[in-house]
Design brief:
Strand content: 5-15%
Strand order of the largest sheet: 1-4
Distance between the termini: 65 Å
Order of helices and strands: HEEHHEHHHHEHHH
Helix content: 40-55%
Shape: globular
Structural class: mainly alpha
Radius of gyration: 21 Å
Low-confidence stretches: 232-239
Number of helices: 10
Length: 239
């Protein structure tokens, strides 16, 4: 095999960034759950009543700082596990999240300066590490921004591919308040669902409810999308 010199920093960054963009382009059609099986989630589950029962007192601000609740993905995993064990389709057998789908896909192939591939077991591990692992800074410029942008894009694609019924698990923000508008669920997934013509009446009703709950995050640019959602609901009622 012919010797190839080490990649320059600029060529290394360009090659790895291109690998990620190529991966997204080639896997867009695969980023979807089966019909009627899409799960979207965000935030944390804070069961303060259980916590107060355990403490035997009202939850203080100090308690809240140490009690971070349960990440919503763990709530979803528990729900999925119960559904599959019960084999009850009405509960949620076969429902899939974006991470579930990413775990079934091969990762982007990125390399070090000597062109050696960096191994990852699947796309979920790769994109999760991309946002968290400082060791990748040498391989990609603006690693954190790239990770944030890609996760937003993947969320948008996954939500836009939803067909039929959906499930939404949305909790509270880390400060116990309403989820903030910088969340991909707010910025990317809800708007993508608003433009999705393939949703069922159940999904459209649920979406309308969630848009109402997070209405403060949406401005008049969404007026037309909301009108289209309502028109779609009316069309479904006449069928």
């Amino acid at each position: 095999m012919a010797y190839k010199p080490a990649l320059s920093e600029g060529d290394l960054h360009s090659k790895n960034f291109k690998a990620i963009r190529t991966w997204v382009s080639e896997n867009k059609s695969k980023l979807k759950a089966p019909p009627n099986k899409t799960i979207l989630y965000s935030g944390r589950d804070y069961d303060l009543e259980d916590m107060e029962d355990e403490l035997g007192k009202r939850v203080s601000p100090e308690d809240r700082k140490t009690f971070m609740g349960t990440p919503m993905y763990k709530v979803v995993e528990k729900w999925q596990k119960h559904a599959n064990a019960a084999k009850d389709a009405k509960v949620g057998v076969g429902f899939k999240t974006l991470p579930d789908i990413l775990k079934t896909l091969k990762p982007p192939v990125i390399v070090d300066k000597d062109r050696k591939e960096i191994p990852y077991p699947n796309a979920w591990v790769f994109f999760n590490e991309l946002g968290k692992t400082a060791d990748l800074d040498a391989l990609l410029p603006n690693r954190k921004k790239i990770a944030k942008d890609v996760w937003g894009e993947l969320s948008d694609i996954f939500a836009s591919h939803a067909v039929g019924d959906i499930q939404i698990f949305d909790g509270a923000a880390d400060d116990y308040g309403i989820l903030q508008k910088d969340k991909d669920f707010i910025m990317r997934e809800l708007p993508a669902l608003l433009k999705d013509p393939k949703l069922s009446k159940q999904a459209k009703d649920l979406l309308a409810k969630k848009i109402g709950e997070f209405g403060s995050h949406f401005d008049r640019r969404y007026t037309e999308l909301l009108r289209n959602l309502q028109d779609g609901r009316e069309t479904l009622k006449t069928k």
